[in-house]
């Protein structure tokens, strides 16, 4: 029975694929070397597990930021990939030696207990192994049918996490909303921006695209402005509302409302507000309830970027940070930042999933259509919640983390970080500090500079950060807020202990002494040479 | 020495963070249970490695597509995350038992040798372990400084891969272009679309956004239309140029040019062409050289989506598929599809990286600014090449794959797949087939249907696919091309042997018999009841 339809090009030999496969090369898994092989995986897997464990054992010995110059690695590697695995039979072991000898000395060690830059990416045994397990299963759950259990686990685990963070019920599947796991907060911003944009354009017409305006504060992560540009919002239509030190760099509802009204008066269309819980520069918290109230009734989509600080909401004492979240349209946080889920993992919840799928859905595609999706009835096809079609099984590691540590375990983790108190307005586990203006001015005065000029202390603090980081004993980052350059010490790595914070502080003190002395010395030389 | 600047809120106690940390909870890594611990990682890592190896051993025993109903998993899991890890001391082992008993029976087994749907995601030992290793290191190389070796390895390995695929030199760093590793082809499309859009708008003015037109064929992956929508291209300005069976469903340069000219005549602005090497429905190949020539001199960005078939270019005999790529602006392929790199890994090369970074760059951000980037001079900051800020260390697994298999090993892999010849116009390792129109018509005739009506055979083939997939012994997908519904059998999983293809064919034959018999029976009943 020849049921193959050859179209208009029917060949004489109506054989089957199987018949045609006869008399050809051996099966691919026996070519060259095993590609996917259980026994070999067991052996190679142990090599890699031991390699990672050895790395954790030694991680504190590495300079946290490597002292390498651009091009250092490229120079040590051949110009083309090898034609064949190197002889000797164990290519992986040889490659791991190169990882140890060539690559590790050149990476910045994000899991180092001395890494206080940016925000931590808290790793955990279970997070790393959850990622490994997902890589081993190697499935692509873009629709429910493409892997039912993976999709359903994501539905379950985003609800679990939402409940653990005390999010409003309406953002969870159990309350008519729903969550998904993306790679980063930037993706969450882009997806919700596009959903809001298309909802608004459906109302006012596509030709008014150029009138849409989005709002954030001058403290909002730059990813938002980038996402707005990607979504085609005019460069001039992204309002960065100024904040001030007086209000702790939080977005003020009154200032926001004034900007919204000005845009409306000019015929433009307010469309989206990105509020932040835990800004990147100083972990400031925008007042959600008041901001939502300010734009209520205007059809403005309110998204909350809680990339870093959302995790803190596992602790009841931090719940105030998300007070008023009942009124927001979407909320995202990164379990890879402070909830042990290893890179990458961003949880996004939306109040109306249909707004997301209306903008990002691709139901017309027959290749992916399957009876379960057509039947509807509660089946989630996550491809319609994100930019990409393909996706990893991220729910697995988050589920493992929640299972193996429990919500109480995560509370302990957050509280352990948050105990690092300092006598400055500190938010969560981010400490911002700088050399006093007075100390810098003592240097600047000799040159007769204006004491109010911030340039000099900013420059000194910039030098201080570079000096601290050059020691390799601590790695911090910086921010400029209200024109003031601050060093950012973000505490939160899984391996960080009290002694690492103490030592980091010693490093800061030593380097501050050196930087101030060097500056004074330069001044004296300048004074001498001017004589 | 108190160098902390307390701003205007200087507290009485000028103590350091370290001093403040005294008298508080024990270090976080000793809380509840080890979070990141080398010895425990060694033990837990072995559990996971053995779990994956056991899975590979048993994978052939699972129905490839599970017979589960929506909601099956959610019903079996608690409504909230556990407060504490379950007692007994080994939460991970308990969780792995649940993965085995609850989750694996409900996943679609993408690594099964019986998975012929969509395109394969070829997994390998080294690909999975490379992903595991990256998860263990858990670094975030968004700038060169944020992890120099990770960035440099990505520069090296994208050049290596480009050379292995015989890509034009001008797309590689060594030729003035450059590559990056993203998650998916959808991201590659979106990033290049935004780069092309902003380049064009800089020329003609932002207010002409609504005039921009993008081009693809009716065979182009739906991700392109989605990416264009995300980028703010008007829904009506995405031209899907029709293709036909006569030209093998390839995009015809003449038809494209006619569409471009029509848009120009109407005052619109042609901006982007997405050509495909290996379309999703039938693996058709668009003629790059002729398409580039057709739009030459018009400032149209030509992107090549070679998500699946790009890998075939490791074999010199398949190089024809990318002939003319010298003239394209960008090219992407997914090493996670056919080059053993496990989910997710998309390589994107661009001829002018500055066009990408002009659109996606965020140089103004002081937090990420560091002296190496400011110095310029060959430092790549990959955050400016993609949507997101954060990113995984994907270069590591691709480097391991290239190291451990070698380019010859990958050639062997591609040839092993491509040997599955069938007597239809087959491209690469994708076989499209269907029940003959005649067989369907034999059923339809009794009802007096028009023999030229395609609906009846399409419906029968749809039933055939559902019947094949319901057996759990093979999993295929479908496409509609030129109004004709075809079953797609994509051969390429690492574990697939000849016997799996033979058996899949037996399953198709059995189910075709059953579907035709059932249809005939229904007809007879209809005829009888009409009497």
UniProtKB/TrEMBL annotation, chains A, B:
Cellular component terms (Gene Ontology): cytoplasm
GO function terms (MF aspect): carboxy-lyase activity; pyridoxal phosphate binding
Record-listed N6-(pyridoxal phosphate)lysine modification sites: 337
Keywords from the named record: Decarboxylase, Lyase, Pyridoxal phosphate
UniProt cofactor(s): pyridoxal 5'-phosphate
SUPFAM superfamilies on file: PLP-dependent transferases
Coiled coil: none
Gene3D superfamilies to which the protein is assigned, alphabetical: Aspartate Aminotransferase, domain 1 (3.90.1150.10), dopa decarboxylase, N-terminal domain (1.20.1340.10), Type I PLP-dependent aspartate aminotransferase-like (Major domain) (3.40.640.10)
GO biological process assignments: amino acid metabolic process; carboxylic acid metabolic process
Family membership: Belongs to the group II decarboxylase family.
Protein name: Uncharacterized protein
């Amino acid at each position: 029975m020849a049921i193959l339809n050859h179209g208009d090009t029917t060949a004489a030999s109506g054989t089957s694929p199987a018949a045609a496969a006869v008399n050809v090369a051996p099966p691919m898994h026996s070519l060259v070397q095993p590609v996917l092989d259980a026994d070999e995986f067991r052996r190679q897997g142990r090599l890699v597990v031991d390699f990672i464990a050895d790395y954790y054992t030694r991680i504190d010995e590495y300079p946290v930021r490597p002292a390498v110059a651009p091009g250092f690695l490229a120079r040590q590697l051949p110009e083309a990939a090898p034609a064949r695995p190197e002889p000797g039979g164990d290519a992986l072991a040889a490659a791991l030696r190169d990882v140890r000898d060539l690559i590790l000395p050149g990476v910045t060690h994000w899991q180092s207990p001395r890494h206080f830059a940016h925000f931590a990416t808290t790793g955990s045994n279970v997070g790393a192994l959850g990622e490994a397990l997902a890589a081993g299963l190697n499935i692509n759950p873009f629709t429910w049918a493409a892997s039912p259990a993976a999709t359903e686990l994501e539905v379950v685990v985003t609800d679990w996490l939402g409940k653990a963070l005390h999010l409003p019920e309406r953002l969870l599947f159990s309350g008519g909303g729903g969550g998904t796991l993306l790679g980063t907060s930037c993706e969450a911003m882009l997806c919700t921006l596009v959903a809001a944009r298309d909802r608004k354009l459906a109302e006012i017409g596509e030709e008014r695209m150029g009138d849409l305006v989005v709002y954030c504060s001058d403290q909002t992560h730059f990813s938002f402005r980038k996402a707005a540009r990607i979504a085609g919002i005019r460069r001039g239509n992204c309002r960065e509302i100024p904040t001030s030190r007086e209000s702790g760099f939080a977005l003020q509802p009154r200032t926001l409302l004034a900007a919204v009204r000005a845009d409306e008066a000019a015929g433009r269309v307010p469309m989206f507000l990105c509020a932040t819980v835990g800004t990147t520069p100083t972990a400031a918290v925008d007042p959600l309830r008041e901001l939502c109230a300010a734009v209520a009734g205007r059809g403005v989509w309110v998204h909350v970027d809680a990339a870093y600080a959302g995790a803190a909401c596992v602790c009841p004492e931090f719940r105030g940070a998300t007070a008023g979240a009942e009124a927001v349209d979407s909320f995202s946080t990164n379990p890879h930042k402070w909830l042990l889920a290893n890179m990458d993992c961003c949880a996004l919840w939306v109040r109306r999933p249909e707004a997301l799928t209306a903008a990002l859905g691709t139901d017309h595609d027959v290749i992916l259509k399957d009876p379960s999706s057509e039947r509807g009835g509660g089946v989630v096809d996550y491809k319609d919640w994100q930019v990409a079609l393909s996706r990893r099984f991220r729910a697995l590691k988050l589920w493992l983390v929640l299972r193996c540590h429990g919500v109480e375990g995560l509370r302990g983790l957050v509280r352990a970080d948050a105990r690092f108190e300092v006598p400055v307005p500190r938010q969560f586990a981010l400490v911002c500090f700088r050399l006093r203006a007075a100390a810098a001015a003592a240097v600047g005065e000799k040159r007769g500079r204006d004491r109010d000029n911030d340039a000099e202390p900013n420059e000194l603090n910039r030098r201080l950060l570079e000096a601290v980081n050059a020691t390799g004993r601590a790695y911090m980052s910086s921010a400029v807020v209200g024109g003031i350059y601050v060093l950012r010490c973000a505490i939160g790595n899984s391996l960080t202990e009290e002694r690492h914070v103490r030592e980091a502080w010693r490093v800061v003190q030593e380097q501050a002494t050196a930087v101030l002395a060097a500056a004074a010395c330069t001044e004296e030389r300048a004074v001498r040479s001017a004589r």
